[in-house]
Write a structure and sequence with these properties.
single chain, alpha/beta, 6-stranded mixed β-sheet, 15 strands
Length: 372
């Protein structure tokens, strides 16, 4: 009885606080509409999909989404959420004074959230989510979802007007996703589960995922796999691309002797098959060890060929390497090689990984400035 009384009181308090919030000027979004720019593309539409689907999960209401038409963006909805990028904002069907609310251009992946009211009290409320680019819009939608107070048949934005801008502190914000039979991985996950997980990474600001190829130091199969690793890798790349996230591959060099031309050729063919299958690859990161154990001069010679291999299928793909697991002599050899002008022409970046012989700051001081 005491527990029931407590829950009843809690429900009454929540209802009362929601009513008070609406009365105090909060924006009631229960019956809002979502408006996309007339020139929006597939990824802007994806941001709208994320917004309405995640809102429906939390309040049970499915907001309508429509594209703007000249002079008629919001229709008759009491509140409207406008979604656009800096490039598409001019075709939202209504004008926003962006020069006053956004005095400086947003950096890549940045976004603005702004709210206002056109009509009288309780009508004409609007929220603008503006991304510097498509990915920035997705991150803006993620922030907006976290600001809205959701409940059963209830969605309220507290304390407007909303004036919020954000831009990332770090250029790369990624997460490795291990579809493999290992205790820190997810070998039983379905495509739908990966989609939801990658979506939630994006909602909280991740802009990259890192995949693991079918052949690594893991077992080749698992009784939990709903799909073979190669097929799931393709699906995960496709999902990330739909959200506009970068796709990396953690690709260990597993063969025993890369001084053997036949071994190198087989590796090029094997990696090339994976590159050709994936709809998106932005970068490949090859660890020097854990796993792998290849002398730096042979490893870098392989990676130069694999960079050309990658570019056949993904013309802007990058090649990165981590000097982890190297002996002192191999680390010295590695540093001499990556300082050479010919290496700097094709190697895109160097990663500080586990089992690195040098501390991060010392490694950074030892490298040419061109390497990120």
């Amino acid at each position: 009885m005491r527990r029931r009384t407590f829950l009843q009181l809690a429900a009454s308090a929540a209802a009362g606080s929601s009513w008070a919030l609406a009365r105090s000027g909060g924006i009631d979004l229960q019956s809002c509409a979502v408006v996309l720019s007339a020139s929006s593309g597939a990824r802007e539409a994806k941001a709208a999909q994320v917004l309405v689907e995640e809102a429906q999960k939390r309040c049970g209401v499915l907001w309508p989404v429509r594209r703007a038409e000249a002079g008629n963006a919001a229709g008759s909805a009491p509140a409207t959420i406008y979604l656009a990028t800096g490039r598409s904002a001019e075709k939202l069907g209504r004008s926003f004074d962006l020069s006053s609310i956004l005095p400086r251009p947003l950096p890549p992946d940045g976004f603005l959230l702004h709210s206002g009211r056109d009509g009288g009290s309780g009508s004409g409320d609007w929220i603008l989510a503006l991304g510097a680019d498509e990915r920035g819009l997705l991150f803006g939608v993620g922030k907006l979802l976290r600001l809205i107070d959701f409940g059963p048949q209830r969605a309220l934005l507290a304390a407007p007007p909303l004036r919020f801008t954000s831009s990332p502190q770090y250029r790369l914000r990624g997460h490795q996703l291990g579809y493999r039979p290992k205790n820190n991985s997810y070998d039983a996950w379905t495509v739908a589960m990966w989609d939801q997980y990658i979506r939630e990474l994006a909602i909280f600001g991740a802009n990259a995922i890192e995949l693991i190829p079918p052949r690594s130091d893991d077992l080749p199969d698992s009784p939990q796999f709903p799909l073979p690793p190669q097929r799931m890798m393709v699906e995960m790349s496709k999902i990330a691309d739909s959200y506009g996230l970068d796709v990396w591959i953690w690709y260990p060099a597993m063969d025993r002797d890369y001084g053997d031309p036949a071994t190198v050729q087989r590796a090029i063919e094997e990696w090339g098959r994976i590159f050709a299958l994936l709809p998106r690859v932005d970068a490949v990161m090859v660890p020097g060890g854990d796993p792998g154990h290849t002398e730096p001069k042979l490893l870098l010679a392989l990676l130069e060929k694999q960079k050309a291999n990658l570019r056949q299928y993904h013309p802007h793909g990058q090649m990165w390497v981590s000097p982890q697991g190297f002996t002192t002599a191999w680390m010295e050899e590695f540093l001499n090689l990556v300082r050479r002008p010919d290496t700097q022409q094709w190697l895109d970046g160097i990663v500080f990984g586990p089992l690195s012989r040098l501390p991060e700051a010392e490694l950074l001081r030892s490298l040419p400035a061109r390497y990120p």
